[in-house]
Write a structure and sequence with these properties.
Blueprint: H1 14-22, H2 35-53, E1 58-59, E2 62-63, E3 65-68, E4 73-76, E5 79-81, H3 86-107, H4 110-115, H5 117-133, H6 136-144, H7 149-174, H8 180-185, H9 195-213, H10 215-221, H11 224-227, E6 238-241, H12 243-246, H13 269-272, H14 293-304, E7 312-315, H15 317-320, H16 330-333, H17 336-357, E8 362-368, E9 375-376, E10 382-392, E11 398-405, E12 411-414, E13 419-422, E14 426-436, E15 444-454, E16 462-471
Antiparallel strand pairs: 1-2, 3-4, 4-5, 6-7, 8-10, 9-10, 10-14, 11-13, 11-15, 12-14, 15-16
Length: 472
């Protein structure tokens, strides 16, 4: 029984907690309120509004965001990309990597603590678990209770809810690759095809990872925790315990500064709220995902004890050791590594924006027919056959005119004619013959150019593609 005005431990001693973690027992983190908890809730809501909502958005009568692998077309709002636009995907991956490096250099594992899908869905599943089973202490008591109708009903309700959320998550994920409205129309009759396998597959992994593996993904399977240290330095913001202020630990009355004791009252609240089950008082650890739950927990205890907050806080090693002054945030932001990451990221983003803004709304591929190198015609000329494929990436059908140049006496013939129409977000392949007078062109390989020009009203656009003409 604790004396009045003291904070009693709310979990077993640290050694027992650590032994339980080593034995692989399930971690039931205690819920906590605070500034960082509010940010986690906000990020969960924002990310899931985007994930669950974006597939339902429409653009020009079609799904706004759709990666149609079957048709090999990728729709991103007004943009229509094809496999030939792989360079834009490369740019997006480079931007994502640089942004991750930048955020990590500035403030550690922000991605892990607030926006990683594993963290987000684990948090959602924890909300469900707490709503049905109660907070951490009640869950541990339920674990210890014998199997009976009440326990089966509670656990069954939890897992059923988890499965519903997981299946809806799998359904939404597949909706990025197949029209989601058509998928939704198949729900009443369960008239799914091969997409059912994808829904079940993704849904199962959501259920298994967020409901069962949880922190084990972060601790043992995620590679980011292993290489993040190369992006840290002494000026990176990390969640840390101020040992100089907190040690030695011990209980005391509210507002009383017991001589010989530090600010830490050894309540264990920082450990009980940690989703990975670590003790931040042992220093920065690879298992820490920088979610800030221990900061909220410790601040609550400091408030109850009428002591200043910040015993556990986001700070840098240099500030903690006195090498940098407190309260000057720019001292850890304005350093060469961060500036370098920021400049490179800004440059790549600028190039991507410029490339997308100046991207032609149609594309031309020219393939010379390999089965027939060259052949004579009835009038004594020599011809080569080409397949010219025109991709219209606009939302409306467009008309084009094709011509060729590059050799004396060059003539072009096409079964479809020089002018043709390509449907909206579609393509058309033309069989094109190029003919030359062999007396004016020597034998060998010669460069030729195909010009495709829009003929619709408005600004004329032209794409030029090179190829070769073979004359034996």
């Amino acid at each position: 029984m604790s004396s009045p005005g003291t904070v009693a431990p709310i979990r077993p001693p640290a050694s027992k907690r650590d032994n339980a973690a080593l034995r692989g027992l399930r971690i039931h983190p205690h819920s906590v309120n605070g500034w960082f908890a509010s940010w986690r809730v906000a990020l969960v809501v924002i990310t899931q509004l985007v994930f669950y909502g974006v597939p339902w958005l429409q653009w020009e009568g079609r799904q706004a965001v759709l990666f149609d692998l079957g048709a090999r077309q990728f729709f991103l709002g007004p943009l229509v990309l094809y496999p030939q636009d792989f360079i834009y995907l490369t740019g997006l991956l480079i931007i994502s990597a640089l942004a991750l490096f930048l955020f990590t250099a500035v403030a550690g594992r922000l991605w892990c603590g607030y926006a990683c899908p594993q963290t987000v869905y684990t948090e959602i599943f924890l909300w469900i678990e707490r709503a049905i089973e109660g907070d951490g202490p009640k869950q541990r008591r339920l674990d210890a209770a014998p199997l009976g109708p009440r326990k089966i009903a509670i656990r069954g309700g939890k897992h059923l809810t988890w499965l519903i959320v997981a299946l809806w998550t799998g359904f939404t994920f597949v909706g990025f690759f197949m029209p989601i409205r058509a998928l939704a129309g198949a729900i009443p009759t369960l008239d799914f095809g091969s997409e059912a396998i994808a829904i079940l597959f993704y849904g199962f992994f959501t259920y298994f990872n967020a409901g069962w593996l949880r922190e084990k993904i972060c601790k043992y399977m995620c590679p980011y925790a292993r290489f993040q240290s190369v992006m840290f330095d002494a000026d990176t913001l990390i969640v840390t315990y101020d040992a100089a202020r907190g040690e030695p630990r011990g209980t005391r009355r509210k507002g009383v500064d017991n001589e010989g004791l530090g600010s830490c009252v050894d309540c264990g609240f920082c450990v009980s709220v940690c989703p990975t089950g670590i003790d931040i008082r042992k220093g920065l650890q690879i298992d820490c995902i920088a979610c800030g739950a221990c900061i909220d927990a410790c601040d609550q205890v400091m408030d109850r004890m009428q002591m200043p907050r910040g015993l556990i806080r986001y700070t840098t090693e240099n500030v903690l050791t006195g090498k940098r002054p407190k309260g000057r945030w720019y001292t850890h932001v304005l350093r060469p590594r961060v500036i370098g990451y920021g400049l490179v990221l800004a440059a790549v983003v600028g190039v991507m924006v410029f490339a997308l803004a100046t991207r032609d709304p149609f594309r031309v591929n020219v393939m010379r027919e390999g089965s027939v190198l060259s052949r004579p015609t009835a009038d004594g000329r020599v011809e080569n056959l080409y397949r010219v494929k025109v991709f219209n990436m606009d939302e409306h059908p467009r008309r084009y005119r094709i011509s060729a140049e590059g050799l004396p006496s060059l003539e072009m013939a096409s079964m479809e004619g020089a002018e043709f129409e390509v449907p909206a977000i579609g393509s058309r392949t033309l069989a094109v013959y190029l003919r030359v007078d062999p007396e004016q062109v020597g034998a060998g390989s010669h460069d030729v150019r195909f010009n495709v020009v829009t003929t619709d009203e408005g600004r004329a656009l032209q794409v030029q593609e090179k190829s070769t003409f073979l004359l034996r």
